[in-house]
Amino acid sequence: MNKVALLSIKWIRLSLCLITLSFFVLSCEKDEIESVENQKTLFMYLPWSTNLTSNFYTNISDMEKAISQKGLNGERVIVFMSTTSEKAILFEITCKKGKCEQVTLKEYNNPPFPPPSNLTTNTNPSVRLLKLH
């Protein structure tokens, strides 16, 4: 082979090595993602009710006020609320710079949860259990 051919082969190899090296260097540079480790999750289950829905909205609003004042401090607040007998929503309450936001996780149409007639009260009136039969 002549010197020109050898020089061009070396040039191509060097170029390929530099290109490959640049991909590795660029791919190692990542944006810093703020990591928040959740220590606990509060789950609010607000089933369909003909006369308590306005109270549920008040409870959520009060929770958001408390969160905006105190912050979440590594906690998550997930809310499942039946807005009608045929619709429900699952959302997370988040807080940034003292402002709360409801982030919808899922919306349900005709959700597969029991009607109030299938709920029974335990010895503790605040605990409701699902009848399995």
Question: Could you characterize what this model shows?
Answer:
Helix content is 32%, strand content 32%. The chain contains two helices and six strands; from the N terminus they run αβαβββββ. It is elongated, with a radius of gyration of 28 Å. It has helices at 3-27, 53-70; strands at 40-46, 75-82, 87-96, 99-109, 119-121, 128-130. The model is unreliable at 118-133 (pLDDT under 50). The strands form two sheets. A four-stranded mixed beta sheet has the order 1-2-3-4, covered by helices on one side. A two-stranded antiparallel ribbon has the order 5-6. The protein is an alpha+beta fold and 133 residues long.
Keywords:
133 residues; alpha+beta; four-stranded mixed β-sheet; two-stranded antiparallel ribbon; 6 strands; elongated; disordered C terminus
